[in-house]
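Structure ticket #2291
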Amino acid sequence: VAPLRISGYTATWAGAQGRHATLAALRSRRSGLRPNDFSPSPIATCIGRVAGLEGLPLPAHLAEWECRNNRLAWLALQQDGFIEAVTSARLHYGAERIAVVLGTSTSSIGATEEAYRTLLPDGRFPSALRRLIIHEPHSTADFVHHALGLTGICVTVATACSSSAKVFGQAERLIRTGLADAVVVGGVGQVAGEAAGGPGVAPLAGRHHVLARQVRARVAHLLDVVGAVAVEALCGVGVAEAVHLSVIGAHIRLELLSVAVAAVFGDDQPRLIHRRILDVVRGVARRTDRRRGVV
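Resolution: structure written out below.
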């Protein structure tokens, strides 16, 4: 696996916007959780909702993609100089040589939920929501692709909790096989109406900030979160600046596996699996680093 250079990264969530604010929130142990005030009939639980998002419409030239999830993505792109980093890469490689690979489970489903809640008497969507692009899983990746002025490959990964790990693997393969020179990679997820107020979630949710381990994955859509990374092929930079994205992805998938196994078999079993697989992953990383002369 070829090492890749990270030329920009950012994160936005209910507790903070951007890297520095996120670090401050973590140090002060702020979760960003608040009592559920989302959906017409919210269930009694806590959610991670980015404040003020409803008052931040997209710019006029991006109005075709107008919806809550894409507003969330746009807010995140404006943090930490991320747009500037992508612009620099676009000028260097060309718009057609930069891909977008985003993971999402919700995409713009909130717009579809709203459209069905406000159906016209003849059964049609309201005119303001009669835009096909916001009623499909590819909505957010397509939005980011256009918002950043890119024309390369654009991919949506929607595999529930593993999406944001798999996108890194796809990014590495696109660059390794020569299909792209740089990739905007990350994930976007929003508080969704059905998850925040649907009957299927009520038995799983609690009134407190700490959710039971066995239901974490099933209430994932109670959080607004965006993470984005710009990665490039190593070209004229030292190996010390590289990150083994495949190892990062493997570790993330391992954490998700541990949660799933714990839910079924109890707390002890995933610890044993986690320890053994992590030993293997670390061993591969050490052998790879030794071959490249990294200490």
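Closing remark: The two ends are 18 Å apart (CA to CA).
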